TrEMBL record:
GO terms for biological process: phospholipid translocation; protein localization involved in auxin polar transport. Keywords: ATP-binding, Magnesium, Membrane, Metal-binding, Nucleotide-binding, Translocase, Transmembrane, Transmembrane helix. Its cofactor is Mg(2+). It is found in: Membrane. The active site is at 433 (4-aspartylphosphate intermediate). This is Phospholipid-transporting ATPase. Mg(2+) binds at residues 433, 435, 874, 878. Residues 59-111 form the P-type ATPase N-terminal domain. CDD domains: P-type_ATPase_APLT_Dnf-like. The chain crosses the membrane at residues 89-107, 113-130, 309-331, 364-387, 935-952, 964-984, 1014-1032, 1052-1075, 1082-1101, 1121-1141.
Amino acid sequence: MRGERNRKLHLSKIYSFTCCKASSVDGDHAQIGGKGYSRVVLCNETDSSVEEIGSSRNYYEYADNCVRSTKYTAATFLPKSLFEQFRRVANFYFLVTGVLAFTKLAPYSAGSAILPLVVVIGATIVKEGIEDWRRKKQDIEVNNRRVKVHKIDGIFEYTAWKNLRVGNIVKVEKDEFFPADLVLLSSSYEDAVCYVETMNLDGETNLKLKQGLEVTSSLHEDLNFKKFKATVKCEDPNANLYSFVGSMEFGEQKYALSAQQLLLRDSKLRNTDYIFGAVIFTGHDTKVIQNSTDPPSKRSRVEKKMDRIIYFLFCILFLMASVGSIFFGFLTKDDFRNGLAKRWYLRPDHSTIFFDPKRSASAAVFHCLTALMLYGFFIPISLYVSIEIVKVLQSSFINQDIHMYYKDADKPAHARTSNLNEELGQVDTILSDKTGTLTCNSMEFIKCSIAGVAYGRGVTEVEKTMSRRKGLPFVHERDISEADDVRGSLDKKAAIKGFNFTDERIMNGNWVNEPRADIIQKFFRLLAVCHTAIPEVDKDSGNVSYEAESPDEAAFVIAARELGFEFYRRAQTSISTFELDPVSGKKVERMYKILNVLEFNSSRKRMSVIVKDDEGKTLLLCKGADSVMFERLAKNGREFEEKTMEHVHDYADEGLRTLILAYRELDPQEYKEFDNKFSKAKNLVSSNWETLIEEVSDNIEKNLILLGATAVEDKLQNGVPDCIDKLTQAGIKIWVLTGDKMETAINVGFACSLLRQGMKQIIIHLDSPEIQALEKDGDKIAITKTSRQSVLLQICEGAAQLTAHRGISHQEFALIIDGKSLAYALEDDMKNMFLELAIRCASVICCRSSPKQKALVTRLVKSGTGKTTLAIGDGANDVGMLQEADIGVGISGVEGMQAVMSSDIAIAQFRYLERLLLVHGHWCYRRISSMICYFFYKNITFGFTLFLYEVYASFSGIPAYNDWFLALYNVFFSSLPVIALGVFDQDVSARYCLKFPLLYQEGVQNVLFSWRRVLSWMLNGFFSALLIFFFCTKAMELQAFDHEGRTAGRDILGTTMFTCVVWVVNLQMALAISYFTLIQHFFIWGSIFFWYIFLLIYGAVPQKYSGNAYKIFVEALAPSPTYWILTFFVVIATLIPYFSYKAIQMRFFPMYHEMVQWRRYERKIEEPEYCDMVQQILLQPMTVSSTGRLAAKANRSMGKDKILNRR
């Protein structure tokens, strides 16, 4: 039944740009067959018929429909993943040393050198393999989706998507995805139109209308394709989603094809029972796959700095090896002089080249290679893989944070990449979209102006904020008493999405008693008729819902319905409504015949419909932006212009989005002339056909009569003002880049706490009388020159204001600039001045910004400040900004998933940014920074003991430790506690991170990973190694080691030193941890315990394999009191300096987080006066914007008032 009803609708007649009939092919279509337009598709050809024709390109040269998003294949996985790993300089170094371990140069066995590298590289490759297998499973699921394809004799059978070939005819049914790029042939509608949802492509949720050629629109049944043959010639595969040039040869005639006939893969068929289409592009040739380029590679600043530190360690390594080799060369040369052997026990007269005094230079070179291998333990081999593991686990905590889960939409936070976790703790500037990011992008009809009278008693978020800011009661409180009855009745009704209007003067049919009831009737009739929405009637409840192209349009239709003008049916060329008849007081059905629809676009900024009512009048109904509508009014249509303009400005001040409504009556002859011109322009296929349609439309949309204006509210998301206030207290600068007009943006800025009372505004615009006069004259060169000079002058004046207030007061400044001015401010000779001005302001708002300008501003801030930027947005127009920023955060809102797909992290609401940055960002930065510093500490402690033993043994090239002690140190004895630190450690709890937002500045100022801090940890490692080595060697050097009088050899000394190193580095970790968990206890004590277990097991292995560690613990170390006493003494002595330093530093020179820890320890953290003291101390050394300082001071003042009141 539904299909029968749909076939009665010729919906193409209500659209201006969709009718495609047979016509001449010119313009872009003349290029078909040339370069870039060489594709030939034989539609509905079988394999055998293709071979008979002699063209096999469709099936054998064009891509198949199997898509692959994996990074590797079975053949390339191993070589490609190995190449990826050995691109890292550290891994390549260990590969070289592993290869050299098979030579006589090696100071250790080859197995002990290769095993750690295999474990580390293997773990990383396994991780890569698991991630790629997940992508492979997604590909398998997509490739095996099923669709109906024409087989033979009009029979359609299901087949997998991957089996489709170019030229196949497919049948796609309602709510199914298109399996490839198709040319639309016909649909369940008579005129081959269908509705398409492109959310997966461009992020937009509104439905698009597509229409097939008229010549194929009659192919409604499966059997119609039994003998269907056609040839499509078109452009080659490309990434442009919004254009398509081709032609179809059918029935010995050629028909032009455009983007209107192209159905893109991964779009969804909506509100249409089925369509038939011919496959044009498959697999990786489809436009969506052509657009799916990899996002730009982003690396955090911490990771980049870590690379530089590793290069620094390499320099130290080479320096130590070179200096040691020079000394070794001189010592070796002195071993045999004048026929006398100085170190006779080395037998220099019968030594190999490695120790030959006669070839000391060669021996020094070979020793240098040996030393480079031996000192390689300075470089933490497991650092990269440990950091990757930690980041993945940190990302899982972000994903599972219940406080960032949006229950209404069932959407948790999702870290789409784990590379930038620590970067979240270093954000200096946030660049945010407004609509859908700060606001809900869910429009509500709240006010209107009709015949110069303002209606609507609702109070917007902006009004509430403005009233609070001025210390006034809400502006409409005076109306509350007279509206109580209306509000009481509304409260009993269920909330209506899109409608938040309250005014007893026109609700419940009371509009008929208003002085200008005739204008009110025309106003709401226009709202009920002038749109392209599709009604859907619920058969069970009878309720009508609407599928509209935008939230605004849906809100208008719903408002008209609630106020007595219900649009309930769209027929072939008509719209039907139920309207309240002012005479009878009853609802009557009215039908309007639709003659034309003149669509909305960004250049026209208006939409019109031409209808004929049941009285035979031809009416043009128009709604559009005030910037284009007022100039189109007739002289006799401006009766309410002054009042309406006043109301529009008031609505803009209240943060509302406005449209002007107007109409005119057309005489038959005028309409006939327009319709002839319009039909010719509409049916012409040429490069400028859209321009011709706009010219014809422009001529008819004049001499309008003003009815009034609508005002809809895009409400702020919950928690946005508090979130912005908290972020500014953290010292983060916030820029808003919006397409809204300046008045709306400013007032929304006040509503969301971006602008505050007392903040001085620097406004840069091009609305001066001089420029307006030049615009009327149309002199473009003069306009450009004057505009550029004006913007430059305003930037200089703004900078002068800031300079004048420097040092005098804590005056806050906000910079507000419009899109026209921004275009000049971003020019090469002016952008640095603009940036310097902007970064000195607490808040920045860029109005009327295009997507390109958003990306350019983001690039300017990132490159100009050199600090971390975060961009946040929700729509396809924000993609450039998200990819340009250091961190891109996508809001998974109502504008689809395009922003999310291009982002690094996805959240459902803007307010979750507070927890993402101040809690997870702060923790991740601290954890990764501490983890890397500790890695360098433990490796330097271990590696430097090797160097000291080398010096002690005259640079002999013999390691102090057993081969497998060396191999397993980084893998088992010291790495797991570091991973636990990186995953679980907290300096303060989440509650205190939010309570003291200025703690976030530790990351912005990079105090935890500065060169000073890194070098101090390295020095701590050198100092620890010195203490361990000298205490152990001096304690064992001259006296007996056990009760049998045996002295310690290299085996006992080395094992004792290694025991001390394991204890020291693990207990050092325990001292550095701020937040202990059972897992951390397990890893720290477990690593130490595992060392002793390993000694027992390894010592029991035959001596052939265990070497000098054979039964060393059982027979030599465990029975000796010296071993246990020395271990205890060395560990305590080595840790005392660090412990003392930390105690003094925390008591007298505490860092920001340590102040909070100290107050928490004293249990005074909840007392307001102590909180105030901590905040005041925190503010002293902070280099943050005045925003954070003033906000914190205001909070302190409020805290003091509370204390005084309590007293």
